[in-house]
Specification:
The complex is a heterodimer of chains A (about 550) and B (about 130).
Chain A (H helix, E strand, L loop, with lengths): L1 H75 L2 H5 L1 H14 L3 E7 L5 E5 L13 H9 L1 E3 L3 E2 L5 E11 L2 E10 L1 H8 L8 E6 L29 E6 L6 E7 L5 E7 L1 H4 L1 H90 L8 H31 L5 E3 L1 H18 L2 E6 L7 E3 L1 H19 L3 E9 L5 E8 L6 H4 L19 H11 L3 E7 L3 E9 L2
Parallel strand pairs in A: 12-14
Antiparallel strand pairs in A: 1-2, 1-6, 3-5, 4-5, 5-6, 7-10, 8-9, 9-10, 11-13, 14-15, 15-17, 16-17
Chain B lengths: L1 E5 L3 H13 L3 E5 L2 H9 L5 E5 L7 H11 L4 E6 L4 H9 L4 E4 L4 H21 L1
Parallel strand pairs in B: 1-2, 1-3, 3-4, 4-5
Helix pairs in contact in B: 2-3
The chains are: A alpha+beta (about 550), B alpha/beta (about 130).
Amino acid sequence: MQEQKYSRLRWKIVATTLAFSLIPLLSLGLFIYFQFSTTYTDKIASNLRTILENKKRAIDQLIEEKIAQIRIVAQTHSFEQLSDQGYLRQVFAVVQANSKLFVDIGIIAEDGRHVAYVGPYKLTEVNYRDEPWFHEVMLRGLYVSDVFMGFRQFPHFIIAVKRQEGEQGWILRVSVDQDVFNNLVQSVQVGRQGDAYLVNSQNILQTASRFDGPPLTPSRLSAHTYFTGVRVETTGDGDEGRLMGLTWLDNAKWMLVIVENPIEEMSPLISSQRNVVLITLLGMLIIITGTCLTAEATVRKIAEVDREAALLDASLMHSSKMAALGKLAAGVAHEVNNPLTLIRESAGWIKDLLADEDPAKIENFEEIAKAVERIDQNVERAKGVTHRMLGFGRRMEPTQENVNINLLVEETLKFLENEAHHRNIAFIREFMPHPPLLSTDPSQLQQVFLNILDNAIDAIDHDGTVTIHTGLTESGREFAVIVHDTGVGIPKDKLEKIFDPFYTTKKVGEGTGLGLSIVYGIIEKLGGRIEADSEVGKGSTFTVFLPLG
Amino acid sequence: MKVLLVDDEKEFLELLTMRLTKRNIEVRSASSGEEALAALSEGGFDVVVLDVRMPGMDGIETLSRMKALAPDVEVIMLTGHANTEVAERGMEMGSFDYLIKPVSINELLIKLQDACRKKRLMAKEL
């Protein structure tokens, strides 16, 4: 019952303390964990954005540069000049000397006729009048095509510019090797899972993708309509999670895509997060350990205080009971004493009167004298009883006297001699001759010896000995009274509980469980201590140590 | 020897008076402190036997007044077992001795004789 109460209390303390310390710790831990994550993700995203913007600018610039080259050629030469196949070849040679990326060059007249061509295809005299790109160039003055596989099995794209020469407009058209972009784009394929490529509006790869294949294969990317600026998206999660940056180019209808694996990028973050988790776990461990230890210590302290309070209660209960009993005894003794005095005086008077009489004249003189003598004797006996009762009553009040312990023990043994005799139990006295007088409370101490001796007799039940040894301890600073019985003994596990209030090994109704706790309380109050030792089947030894002086 | 017996128990007074008279002691009895002081003022007493526990003026007060009234008269206190402390206080205040009730007549006689002897010796010295 008690154990259960303390166990419940312990859990209550543990739960409350843990709640108040773990909740803030966990909140802080989680906050830091997610704050790290958010900050780091934002950082990676902004990084990606910067790379994307830079790349886009570079690619746009490259395209712009190519367009500018073509425009210079168109604007520095007339249709007449460039329609001449030979002249065109010379011009193309100059262009190619600057950049090997140009694959072919052609001049297209206003009506769509291919008037001159230098390159690997036989495209002269082909009419482009019905081609959509032709109309776009004629309308907008510039056209950049998607990528296609060229004659040399290399991906190419077309740049076409229009020049208006008076009434007449004509088109200069070149094919450019797509390889120019591959290096530029692929340089940002970072990590083991990063990727970078260009796609057109139909989601067809314009440069090689690391994972989706060579140019002109469809990408696995979902279709995106044109938008301005830079867009960063996350796809999938866990190891499959991808951070994807998208932006449309200004000078071609292509979208630049850069893919990163956040897990790879975030490895510093993950190690920080692991540290946060480890520190939090360590903190929790310390808190839990600390809480358990504190709770244990607190509960032990409370239990101790409870035990002391119970002991004090028991001792108070006992002393008030004994005080009441003492008062009653003293009252009775006093009331009986007055008639006793009168009986004695009356008997004395009879004796006095008889002394004057002549024994021969009174028939029963002898008998009367004997009866009076008997009255006197019994009054003396009754006087002894009332004196003892008064003495008992008086002893219930705390006093400080110089006490001969041997005499006190002897007096206590007198109380029990009758009982011991009936049960065939012998008292063996090993008293120290001429013991020092102890300044202590004799009645309280008598209660101590009475309880210990009473227990000894109960432990023996029948046939045995109780040895009472008195003497100084080895140090000479204490006086010891050792009571050894040949009783049943107390098991080791119960030995430490025998001084607890309400602990009893006796049958229900036979023992209050207060005897030894009262003994303990009294001895503590008198400044002494008590030790118990026992062996089951051989008997128990109680040693009372009392301070000298 | 002239003795003044003071006790609130009339029967006790009666019996003790008879027994002491029979032993050739002149006895006068008083059943209260006031009565005792009145008797004492008449003079001629050697010893007072005074009960500690009395209603009204108790033994100790009677004793102190007696000592003021007739310092030469010796007082023997009578007490129950419970009141020995009071009797001891009486001795500090100048009583000759005390006896515990029920008292044996021989013991009382010896104490009376001792007290009387002391009183007479003191008187001689003066």
